[in-house]
Amino acid sequence: MPHRPDLGYRDEGQDLAGSAFYAAALAPEPTVLPPAAFRSLRFTQLEDEAVWTRDWVCVGSHEAIPNEGDLLPFTVGTHGVHVQRSAEGRLQGRFNKAQHGGCRMVPLQCQTGAKTKCSFTSCGYSRDRPAIPAGDLGDGTPEMHQYLGLRPERLLTASVRSWGPLIFVNLDVAPASPETSLAALNKTAGFFGNHKPVRSDEVWLEFAANWKLLGQHLAGGAPVAEDEDAGWILAETTLLDGRAARTAWLFPNLVLIATESETLALVLQQTAIGQTLCRVCVYGADAAGSVERWRPEIAGRATEAAAEHLAAARWATSFRPETRSAALPRQSDPHGRWMQRALAARVERMPRGPIEQPLFQNPRG
């Protein structure tokens, strides 16, 4: 990575957006990322700029909003957005009307990097609620004011795409479409199709690990293919019960684990610097109770992620004094190396100066 201007993302004495921060993690024999990547609030703010506002982010499934007017909320980084089904069945992505929950300013307790439990559920700093049926969005309801306002057509829009049964949004101005590459991925791995027609109920599970480490371990296996531009890696693995499976990580927040008969979909959402919520469902011929069958596999992989997160969070602290002058460990996990390259590439592509087209313009100007 060439030298770039300091953007002010600094913590622990390091320029988090500078090339030096990633140099060892991108070397031929890479180390793990510096601990600040997994414990710094400033780094999560950098990720909001470099990743969450520019990548295609999975927000859920079509089955969550089957009817006209149904609305699916999802906080992308610190941006409260939603996807709503129109009368024609199409999907409309928008930024929520109440980005800060109706507060005059963001309270200090909401600026810690942890999503708070708040009555203003549309806020980009609070936890999301599940999909909202159209009947709960009538005139005068809190949900209508928080998400849609009186003139939804005037809200800032977000791009929406589908892949199989899943819904993605992108907050960038004119993002490239990922459909061609994702179609090739599905043709290779068979994650979705008529052979897996039924979705289970969605279950929310939360784990004590940074989202990058959780994605790395949930998708673990022996890599067989990847698409750097589209941001996915495909791998083969053996499950705890001995079955062969394929995994895919669609960076940043979708992990798929598939056998011949089922596909486990895990949508990741950072709820704190060291905590990640997984929205989990299974697609198959008979999805009843299927999430429960997958729980041991999910828990085993998440436990590895939590252990790695704890080690990184305590590196060079009083909890691990022996590491204060030690070199960072080697990155031996192929998914860890892939994640580090994907993250560094997004920081590298992040704008470093004024953009030609402002996001917000006075239409009468």
CATH class of the largest domain: Alpha Beta
Percentage of helical residues? Answer: 10-25%
Q: The biggest beta sheet, please?
A: 8 strands, antiparallel
Distance between the termini: 39 Å
Give the second-level CATH assignment, the architecture of the largest domain: Alpha-Beta Complex
What's the total count of β strands? 16
CATH third-tier fold name of the largest domain: Naphthalene 1,2-dioxygenase Alpha Subunit, Chain A, domain 1
Task: Please state the average pLDDT score.
Answer: 91
- Which percent band covers the strand fraction? 25-35%
- The CATH homologous superfamily of the largest domain is called Naphthalene 1,2-dioxygenase Alpha Subunit, Chain A, domain 1
Order of helices and strands: EEHHHEEEEHEEHEEHEEEEEEHH
Characteristic terms for this protein:
alpha+beta; Naphthalene 1,2-dioxygenase Alpha Subunit, Chain A, domain 1; Rieske Iron-sulfur Protein; 2 domains; six-stranded antiparallel β-sheet
Walk me through the topology:
Blueprint: E1 10-11, E2 14-15, H1 19-23, H2 36-39, H3 41-52, E3 57-61, E4 71-76, E5 79-85, E6 91-95, H4 142-148, E7 157-163, E8 166-170, H5 179-189, E9 198-199, E10 203-207, H6 211-218, E11 222-227, E12 232-238, E13 244-250, E14 254-258, E15 262-272, E16 275-284, H7 290-313, H8 334-349
Antiparallel strand pairs: 1-2, 3-8, 4-5, 5-6, 6-7, 7-8, 9-16, 10-16, 11-12, 12-13, 13-14, 14-15, 15-16
Helix pairs in contact: 3-8, 6-7
